[in-house]
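note to self: dont lose this again. the chain is below, predicted strucutre after it. 468 aa total, dont forget to put it in the shared folder this time
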Amino acid sequence: MDDFIFLLTEKEAKYKQVYQQMKILITQGTLQTNDSLPSIRKLAETLQVSRNTTLTAYEQLVAEGYIRGEGRKGYFVNALEPVFLQEQEQEQEQEQEQPVLSQPTSNTTSLLVDFRAGAVDQTYFPMKTWRQLANQVLQEPSCYQYGELFGDPLLKEQLVPYLLQARGVSTTSENIMIGSSTQQMLLYVGFLLKDHFPSVLLEDPGYNGAREAFQLHRFVIETLPVMETGAQLDILKHCQSRLLYVTPSHHFPYGVSMTIQQRQTLIQWAQQVNGYILEDDYDGEFRYTQQPFPALASIDPSKVIYLGTFSKSFLPGVRLSYMVLPNTLVQPFKERFAHFEQNASSLHQRTMAQFMAQGEWTRHIKRMRLTYKQKMQHLVQELQRQFGPQIAVLGEQSGLYIVVKVKSPLSEQQLIQRAETYGVKVYPTSPFFINQTSEDPLLQLGFSKLTMEEIKLGVERLKEAWQP
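---
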């Protein structure tokens, strides 16, 4: 199709109207797989808009996977899964049937926007490619067995160059252990180290899932205070622990990143006390203002136990995480768990190995980094527009969520309850604190699975809910 006539109004940005109407043509099947689209210049002339308008619309469609650009050939429609198309049609029907909502009159308002952190935008999951690779793996006899105890060799071989290129971590496949989740890896490490390291330092605030794992092993818990500006490393010299669990590239939940000077301080501390640092790099791929920071393990792999996961960057349902052990812990780990079966799916491990080998993983990360960056910027802009100085946004440089500090006489729980009354789900940060407290309420807002429209609606609803 070369000619498009769209009715554009002045009520909404024109690039957004072009994007939305093109998207409808694709999802309804009017535009089919591999159909060519008019050039940016030709579409702009037809619609009598600027080239920037049509360029921005095309860029959004490319970022979301609806179309692709092929150099000088132009733009073409991508294939969409039939299931995805059905979901789109159902969503459009629901949108047409749903009345315009006014201010809620009761506490039974249905949930409209869920700012849940840890969710993934399933719209851009490369289902077709993943399914094709999984089908190929199903032809291999090895996927019908229990699998290697410490991880599929092919996946570990793919992780070696990836970790060096993306995170600066130099390692070998022998040092890499595959598991189903970061918490499971922490439980294993706890079994390995608790006889020699009775206590552990945890960030405060910090990831409560890690705290639960260490408490299960009855570690004595010491805390490393973390402020909005970073960790208070001076306290290290007063601590008894020789184990430290940290999230240096993207602190959970504040979102601050450690400087190279702070990272060197941690390494020097571990060397001085002859201890280990457990580095949780849970979403290190998603940094939006600069290139992702090199991992702490890139400075001294002999003192860092590096933890990574595919859950945040790919799909939580694909239960795959990995751990890079220092040389001194590889053999003790293998001896300790020699009689425990691998609990990560052999099928998922082998499929991920093929996914990485074909370059699909790198393409996926690049695509999602752009998508999430746009969502992050949109969320921050909407919050600033609606609330102004009433809130402060923390952690907008990276990750899949932000933390907002709300200047309000209401408590954290009251703000959450009011938001839910208006159909919006936001989340507390109080479970992440051990000893410290925050003067103003802090709330966590995830954005990864939300559309731009849902983000805008959610913030507008929060403004109504939290107004004096």
